[in-house]
Design a protein that fits this description.
The complex is a heterohexamer, with three copies of chain A (326 residues) and three copies of chain B (103 residues). By secondary structure, chain A is mainly alpha-helical. Chain A contains 15 helices and no strands. Chain A has a single domain, classed as Na+/H+ antiporter like fold (Up-down Bundle). Chain A starts with a helix and ends with a helix. Chain B is elongated and about 45 Å long. The chains are: A mainly alpha (326), B alpha+beta (103). The interface between A and E is medium-sized, with 29 and 32 residues. The complex binds adenosine monophosphate (3 copies) and sodium ion (3 copies).
């Protein structure tokens, strides 16, 4: 417990977290501090490219084995199943939330937040804890399946949303998935040699860019919170804090069954615990336009994301170390 | 200078619906349009801005079509289903165009 | 398709006045508007462009409001004090809208 | 509020022609205009988007001029030669403006 | 004198200055070379974040003492008072300038130009001259007070501009002030350890980004000059060259009284000598819309800024070394 | 031959090429992966600045001699003459192409593609092959002359396009030429010392930025290919693959006559073989609006550029080494 607290304390005082807090405070105080949209998108492309490439290079170095395939498969299954848990939990905690809204939210929690993943792997690296490079591929694989579950949940009642070919393309060829997997593949093919060539761009300044990106995310989250009054009830908040713990538990189980290292288990927990803020919201606007974006964006970005970032990750790290013997 | 009657249709719709809108327009035989970026706005679903955002879920575009009056109905019928349930507003203004042979 | 008479108000004003304009609109009960970015322009105070600029002192936005004709006067009266002394132009065009229940 | 008749001219033209257009406008005595960025579009020469592009050869802008009706012809005559052979569309809409002394 | 000249000569041939000259020449020759607005803003956010963070980390290392508070206080007082000097000087040098225009200009000279500050501290570092890390906090503190003085000067005549709550927010929660102070605070909290984590982003490439930013500023300044014919009389130009010297003298006095190091005195001179081009112009457009932006932007950006950048900084450095015994 | 193949193989599996392939595939599969326009332009400015500066610094180090002037002169002559070869070749291979279209295309092949140049010099450096720093100046000098030839070719028939003063400005003060030459000059003036100051920005991360830029160019090329069906006949494709070889041969001859090193000859071949995608298309839109941009942009960007990038550069390198004795 002590260890968790000290870890959480150290984490809270890292530049990465403080930058998020700065952005959040600025937005809540209604400062006009903002990043241009193009810069925010550019940083997001950079982070996806860097994390994908490094994951691939790490697989090239340590070799891929059957566990890569197994882990990806398990990730896909988790992404399919977690929305059901999320749906039930949200419906029981917040009775005011409609079935469609609950389905849309559920889709977010089955999918993953890549920046939470990035923050967690940065923290692991800082502590010298290694993890399986292919966890990046697991992350990419978990982005989309939850969308299918969410649509199934929303249409059980028969309102008839079906996944058109366009929606499939929207889901599967989503820019962030393509970039993450593409960079992973390039990293894998070119290996350590390729990584060495571009390390001065994607390794050394990585943490600094992450800080600036989280500053921007803090601003966006704060703006969301300011506009979301009315949508966010106590039950909704409770869901936003409990669901990550549910997800993390399932993730821990999955990671242990897969025989991952302590670092790998941590990341599996983080993936299961985090909620999408890029791929799923876009798909939901197309497929479930009646679901309220203020609800799912605020939950994912302004409640669950900060929770994971500040308290969740150190907690998952401690639990994973205890269970997998870091 | 010789001018011709036309309609200026302005469709403000979620950015994520861009490809659906343009496909519907093409299906209705409307191949001329221009897309303007939108910075932010306000409506029944509150106020929003693109600044700092990386999400494709929020944000709008403005699609502007100049069409011959006779093709207006086909255009509106084509995009109506796309608008349905989606955030968006459509306005139609009488206008005059140069070089009508292009429309 | 059933259309309804409306007014399209286009306010081109300094970007720095955005919050004042939107607050005045809200005060006048106008909650629907869309803000377009502006690249550059020219007027009595000369020509300008946003390219490369970091200053918030220069630069404009275009605020577009579709309103029912009956609410036009309230809108114009609300924004007139904001315009006063400030750089900006306002135009009002007759238009027709779909889905009037939204305005 | 006192309004004045005016024309809203909207010129959509290749970005690369910007300086020619604005020079022609100035030569015709039109010193007030606003330039909006354009994200993409479609026309006889196919569909295009600015995303990711570094070339100045593609891409358009929208030039909006509010002018007194009496000056419309001079304006159109001034820009017609620039449009010639170039990609672009021009529309003219009746509108009303505040503060006409500025136009 | 020789030393000043050689310093100025070396300074003039540094990449930073030459980049400014390149941008200026390109714009004057009407080249279409420009930076996208989003990139220019992104670079400006980067510079503010980096300089703030490094200042904070330096305070964390060397410890904060009473002098930090004293220096901030003195900075605020200077920012309040300098506009009065500027107002009188401008009105006596350029009689054609209206009272409102003079008040608006005066506000710019009481406030500071952060990029001039950055250029000066880069030059100090290149020469191995240390300075107090908290000078960044002084810079942030000097951004806003001058606005109040400018409005007071403008309304003495009774035209009745008062500072509304919104204007206060605009002034105090201005994005650049929030980012500078926020990054300073994070740097202070996380100290050398935090700095080490993100140094590959905010330390190593810093000077290169400064070069590109100055290239962009040169373009904008050149464009301003081209459009400002008619507004800029000989008296106005004289003011733009003399006022920095007045400011620098007052700054030198303040720095010596505070017992700052030679580097610190230099920076205090630079702050007092420089004119705002971000915070104050925006506030003036809101509060004094009748003041002519072509006048104050051209003065700040196209006359005083290049003067400080090329001749001012080396001069202030030499004077500070002579006085404070570098 | 073996050596060429192995070089080409290694080249094909470098991160730089794989990034281009990723972008191309994403666009052909109609993924929504894109870079914001501002980011793409920002990267392009960065590459121009970096390559120009490094070229200038290298000239400062190795000294400029008469050969610099000679090489620039030869470059200008090549740029003037190559369009005539291109025009004849295109007209004989693709009879459907109009005279105006052929003239516009010809202008592109007389000019150069700076990113091809950058990719080639990166590959040379990776192999430890040195080259003359002033080749950057040759690249800049070759950008524009071809435009004049193209217009001459187009108007021989008397359709009367003449180069107005504005068009001259558009051509000569084109942002990319100004930035390349300006950075070259600054690099030359400040030399190794200047380069050292900003190397952490323009040297270390250079290759990484090149990867991301090529990813973006792959996307744009793929989009172009998707839209260009109908315009691109077999004859046109043949031209797009043969013309670089013609250009490279002429370039090789010129390089050998100039007595360049093997690296320098390679770059001269690359310049002659590559086709402009920034300066010339813009000039053609202004001066020859009737020429079809789909034709020349697709040829330059989606056929010749990938050919040079993947097979051309290794081939030119091998030939240059054989001829100039690398
Ligand atoms: N009356 C209006 N005039 C102009 N734009 C509007 C109007 N109403 C809505 N919009 C735009 O449509 C978006 C969504 O509207 P809503 O569906 O009402 O939330 C807003 O954010 C605005 O950008
Ligand atoms: N007649 C007009 N038509 C369109 N936009 C205008 C017009 N006049 C002024 N503007 C816009 O308003 C800005 C300020 O105008 P001014 O106050 O006249 O300098 C200009 O830079 C243009 O963007
Ligand atoms: N009918 C139209 N309505 C609006 N914009 C148009 C129209 N036709 C063409 N455009 C715009 O003009 C550009 C060039 O048109 P075109 O010359 O027909 O290829 C298109 O890409 C659109 O941006
Ligand atoms: Na999850
Ligand atoms: Na000052
Ligand atoms: Na060539």
């Amino acid at each position: 417990m002590d260890q968790i607290l000290s870890l959480a304390g150290q984490n809270l005082l890292s530049p990465v977290i403080l930058c998020f807090v700065l952005g959040l405070s600025a937005a809540l105080a209604r400062s006009d501090l903002t990043f241009p949209e193009a810069i925010a998108k550019g940083m997001s492309l950079y982070l996806l490219f860097a994390i994908g490439f490094k994951g691939g290079a790490s697989v090239a170095e340590h070799g891929a084995d059957l566990r890569l395939g197994m882990a990806v498969l398990v990730g896909v299954v988790l992404s399919f199943l977690l929305p059901f848990a999320a749906y039930l939990l949200l419906r029981s905690l917040a009775r005011g939330v409609s079935a469609t809204d609950a389905a849309a939210v559920a889709g977010h929690y089955g999918s993953i937040s890549i920046v939470t993943f990035v923050a967690a792997s940065t923290l692991l690296q800082a502590r010298g804890i290694t993890f399986e490079g292919y966890m990046v591929a697991v992350a990419a694989a978990m982005e989309a399946p939850a969308i299918v579950s969410a649509l199934w949940l929303a249409t059980r009642g028969g309102s008839g949303t079906k996944i058109t070919p366009d929606l499939w393309r929207e889901i599967m060829l989503n820019g962030s998935i393509v970039l993450l997997l593409g960079a992973f593949t390039i990293g894998w093919i070119t290996g350590e040699r390729g990584l060495a060539e571009i390390a001065p761009l994607i390794v050394a300044p990585f943490k600094g860019v992450l800080c600036l990106f989280l500053l921007d995310m803090g601003i966006v989250a704060g703006r969301g919170l300011r506009n979301a009054r009315g949508v966010i009830s106590a039950g909704v908040i409770a869901f936003g804090l409990l669901m990550p713990l549910v997800g993390a538990s399932v993730g821990a189980l999955a990671g242990l069954l897969l025989g991952l290292s302590a670092g790998g288990v941590t990341l599996m927990m983080v993936l299961a615990a985090s909620a999408s803020y890029i791929a799923v919201p876009a798909a939901m606007r197309v497929a479930l336009p009646k679901a309220n974006p203020a609800l799912y964006l605020t939950l994912a970005l302004a409640i669950t994301f900060p929770f994971n970032l500040t308290l969740g990750i150190p907690l998952y790290m401690a639990v994973a170390s205890a269970l997998a013997g870091g | 200078m010789k001018m011709h009657e036309a309609k200026r249709v302005e469709i403000m719709i979620e950015a994520i619906m861009e490809s659906q809108v343009t496909r519907s327009l093409a299906a209705a035989g409307v191949t001329g349009f221009t897309i303007l970026p939108v910075l932010g706005g306000s409506g029944r679903s509150g106020q929003w801005t693109r600044e700092g955002s990386v999400s494709r879920a929020s944000g709008m575009i403005a699609v502007i079509c100049l069409v011959a009056p006779t093709r207006l109905d086909a255009l509106l019928e084509a995009i109506f289903p796309v608008l349905d349930d989606h955030i968006g507003v459509v306005s139609v203004t009488d206008t005059q165009i140069l070089r009508a042979e292009r429309f």
